[in-house]
Amino acid sequence: MRRQVQEDFPFLREAAGPLRYLDNAATTQKPLQVIEAFSRCYRAACAPVHRGLYPLAARATADYEAARRRLAQFIGAPRAEEVIFTRSATDSINLVACAWARRQLRPGDRVWVTRLEHHSNFLPWQKICRERGAELRIIELGRDGRPDFDAASELYGARTRLIAISQVSNVLGIVNPVQQVAGRARARGIAVLVDAAQAAAHERIDVGALDCDFLAFSAHKMYGPSGIGLLYAAAPRLAEMEPFIVGGGMVDEVGESESTWVPAPARFEAGSPDAAGAVGFAAAADYLDAIGVGALGAHVRALADRAMRCLSEISEVEIYGPSQEGQRAGIVSFNVKGLHPHDVAQVAGEEGVALRAGHHCCQPLMKHLGISGTVRASFAVYNDESDIEALCAAVRRARRLLLSE
Amino acid sequence: MLDHARHPRNRGGLELAEIVRRGRNPQCGDEIEVGIAVARQARGEVLASARFRGRGCAVCIASASIATDALCAMTRADAVRLTREMTRWFGAGGAAPSGISPALQALALVRDYPARLRCALLAWQALSEALDPDAVKPSTPG
Question: In principle, which of A187, A228, B23, B110 could form an S-S bond with B120, CB 3.0–4.6 Å?
Fold first, then answer.
């Protein structure tokens, strides 16, 4: 697959030095198709969105709304109004916490998250639960290292108002059974939020089939520009949300003491919107669809399996998460016994292998695993087997360099 | 630095220390404790020992090893001066403190890696608190 797409990614030719970019779970590189769509916007259609009366402004508005419709279609949302542009997946989740949960939660209510969650899908709930006197509960990992939804007694209990879970773990690559959880929650009237940040580039997202209430992800982890994300909010939930950020572009009539708001989605997009970002986001969806999200998912899973096999041949390497093949959505987390993950990543970096090391914004998971961090390799469309060889060579070099005999 | 990371000096044996201070960086899970013992001699208070224990990355451990090595047998006043100058040098840059050993100079390598600065500073900040418990706690960059 790499040869086919190599031409699309300028970083392979333009970034300094030979680069094995394996930090894709943090952010992906951008293809020309996205860079050009983004650049075209600033070259030929730069004007205020929803605010101008001349043709150029109409064009900017049309581009922005076309991007919204394209992304609604990309995630299977029945109505474009259910797609709200935000700055990031983090922003989207905070929006749900502040615009919806703050009004919905009562003292004693429960919000559930898994032990795997990124701080972005943990801290907003911790904060809002404390504020509202609600209780944040954690779905713990079972013996197989996956969240044990069945063991979380009272998960679907009468006091549960929301279950907020990631579709794919950014540390372990575990794919959670979101559809199953959403189905059981639906039957009991419990809202479900899916953090799809790690899923968007490799797993087909279909909010219709998932039947979830909220779904959040960002563009920059799926080959799109950074600084833009989206929140899908199902129409009934949208109706329960109050504006969180207020200001320009979201008002109907402003009075001295009372004001009224325009309907969603503009109601939740105060401030001048990021038109180029939205257009680039839609171009990223086009790019993914042209290759096929299914093929992309299979590609990164195969690479993760291969990395796991190669790394496990190096002595003192411990790999976290599921050991069966085909279970990892393009992410492998590991440690070299006796070495700090930051040291491994730095040595690898000097060898041209870009890895992430640390707690990956998952301190609750790290505490559970009893470690301070891991080294993480995560894969994308432009990676291939040679990157895994470089990864393993770099890990071997870190061992030689840093471990005393 | 690699040598100090692989074979740290002055590690462990904090039981005899008079003053123990701790440095933590929750971002990377690094956590070390430093301990000093002071002897009164003709030239004033002298550091009879400076030791550390804990876990951390290679930069953190090497820095703790080099720092404790450098401070041992110094007078308290000189040690306070050196830790102050070293922390300033890491943070603000500028000229190296005068007359420092090659091992201390080697620590300057981390200044090319801003992400590792905190790792290198951890031991120095803890030592500075141990040496001068009344001083204002130095702020951490980043």
Answer: B110
Does A343 sit within 8 Å of B29, measured CB to CB? no
Tell me, yes or no, if B4 comes closer than 8 A to chain A by beta carbon: no
pLDDT reported for residue A6? 87
Cα A80 to Cα A271: distance, rounded to the nearest angstrom? 19
Task: Please check whether residues A243 and A362 belong to one and the same domain.
Answer: no
Q: Is the ipTM of this complex over 0.90?
A: no
Nearest CA in chain A to B55: A340
Based on the residue annotation, tell me whether A361 is a catalytic residue of this protein.
yes
Report which residue type is found at A399: R
Q: Please report, for the domain that includes residue A157, its CATH number.
A: 3.40.640.10
User: What does the pLDDT read at residue A1?
Assistant: 59
Domains with residue ranges and CATH for chain B: 2-131 (3.90.1010.10)
Domain boundary among the residues A274, A290, A306 is at: A290
Angle between helix axes B117-131 and B76-92 (nearest 10 degrees) is 150
Domain region containing A325:
2-22+292-399
Q: Does B29 contact A at CB distance below 8 Å? A: yes
- Residue A40 one-letter amino acid: R
Rounded distance between C-alpha atoms, residue A351 and residue A190, angstroms: 49
A22/A27 Cα distance (integer angstroms): 10
What is the residue-averaged pLDDT of chain A? Answer: 95
For residue A223, how far is the Cα from the chain centroid? Answer: 12
Cα A283–chain centre separation = 17
Please report, for residues A144, A160, B127, the alpha-carbon distance to residue A153 in angstroms, rounded to integers and kept in the order given. 18, 11, 48
Given A98, A212, A310, A361, the catalytic residue? A361
Chain center to CA of B129: 10
Among A203, A198, A194, smallest CA distance to A171 is for: A198
C-alpha to C-alpha distance for A329 and A202, rounded to whole angstroms = 7
Q: How many CA atoms lie within 13 A of A272 on its CB side?
A: 10
A29 inside domain: no
Q: Are residues A14 and A59 in the same domain?
A: no
Give the mean pLDDT of chain B.
87
Q: Confidence class of residue A18 from pLDDT cuts 50, 70 and 90? A: confident
From the CA of B37, how many Å to the nearest CA of chain A?
30
- Across A380-397, b (16+ Cβ under 10 Å) vs e yields bbbbbeebbebbbbbbeb
Token pair 């608190």 is found at B129
A28 falls within a domain: no
